[in-house]
Amino acid sequence: MKSLPAWFKQEIPEPLALSKAKFISGFNVRTVCREAKCPNAGHCFKQNKMTFIILGGVCTRNCRFCAVDKITDNKKLPLDIDEPRRIAEAVRALNTGYVVITSVTRDDLPDGGASVFAESVKLVRKINKDIKIELLIPDFKGSPVSLGIVLDASADVVAHNIETVKRLYGSLRPMADYRTSLEVIKFTKGNKPDIITKSSLMLGLGETGEEVIEAMKDLRYNKCDVLTLGQYLAPSLEHYPVKEFIDIKEFREYKRIGLGLGFLNVLSGPLVRSSYKAEEVFKEIAYA
Predict the structure, then answer these.
(1) Residue 167: in which H helix or E strand, if any?
(2) Which of 47-61, 240-254, 271-285 is the least confident region?
(3) What is the pLDDT at residue 36?
């Protein structure tokens, strides 16, 4: 692998960002910013922008790119029903106007954790009915019942990431299905037309440019409104390796193509992640 590109180098987190991280940990809640080792965590924490992660800290799937802990045996995973309340209290303390909530995948639960998503939305809205809420959901195995529970909670944005191109699903996401992920987005928009739908692709996993564009077209065909594209960074040597560092010009070209395909907004760049600048992206659409 060639030397790391200049954009990879991140500033040491400022004291304010570190204090916010410590403050939020006092509520006994998790953030995907830390669980998934996001490179933007310091920048976002400083601005009171973070993505809460519910349903515990252990995932039932084995995606090879993800830093979140995975189940290694048949041990039953606990379900913390007090999580939504603690997240709502953290939101109150942060006094933020935009909240992003995601989760690990919990295939062991009858509804995949959909009811916990719904309760989280309910309690956050109880804090302030004007708070905008973005949910980044798993596929719930494509269950219309589980998806219906989430959609009835009436979040402002519902995201589901396809993560990579169709060809790489077998090696990167062996327990997921490309078509099911697209159907989740289609179902969301079809049942709640006013909800903004969103998805994300990681680049540098060995995909071709043609495959990226094909995935973008698939997303638009299935009614995805917003797309984010970012550079994949392996969390450790044990995870799937980076195959390529994508040039800035390519990211710009993908944005141009995406807007031409009809996405309402495209955020494309090396350090872009699914929830990066989520509030700004929402406002650009909602107030356009």
Answers:
(1) none
(2) 47-61
(3) 47
Give the pLDDT confidence score for residue 263 in this predicted structure. 98
CATH class of 8-286: alpha beta
Report the pLDDT value the prediction gives residue 58, as an integer from 0 to 100. Answer: 92
Residue type, 215: A
The H or E element containing residue 287 is: none
Q: Domain residues of the chain, as ranges?
A: 8-286
CB atoms inside a 10 Å sphere around CB 51 = 25
Query: Count of CB atoms within 10 A of residue 63's CB?
Result: 19
pLDDT in tens, 28-45: 888 765 544 555 445 555
Tell me the average pLDDT of the chain: 88
The 3-state secondary structure of the chain reads: CCCCCHHHCCCCCCHHHHHHHHHHHCCCCEEHHHHCCCCCHHHHHHCCCCEEEECCCEECCCCCCCCCEECCCCCCCCCCCCHHHHHHHHHHHHCCCEEEEEECCCCCCCCCCHHHHHHHHHHHHHHCCCCEEEEECCCHHHCHHHHHHHHCCCCCEEECCCECCHHHHHHHCCCCCHHHHHHHHHHHHHHCCCCEEEEEEEECCCCCHHHHHHHHHHHHHCCCCEEEEEECCCCCCCCCCCCCCCCHHHHHHHHHHHHHHCCCEEEECCCCCCCCCHHHHHHHHHCC
DSSP 49-65: --EEEES-SEESS--TT
Predicted pLDDT at 198: 98
**Beta-strand (E) ranges in 61-172?**
69-70, 98-103, 132-136, 157-159
pTM: 0.89
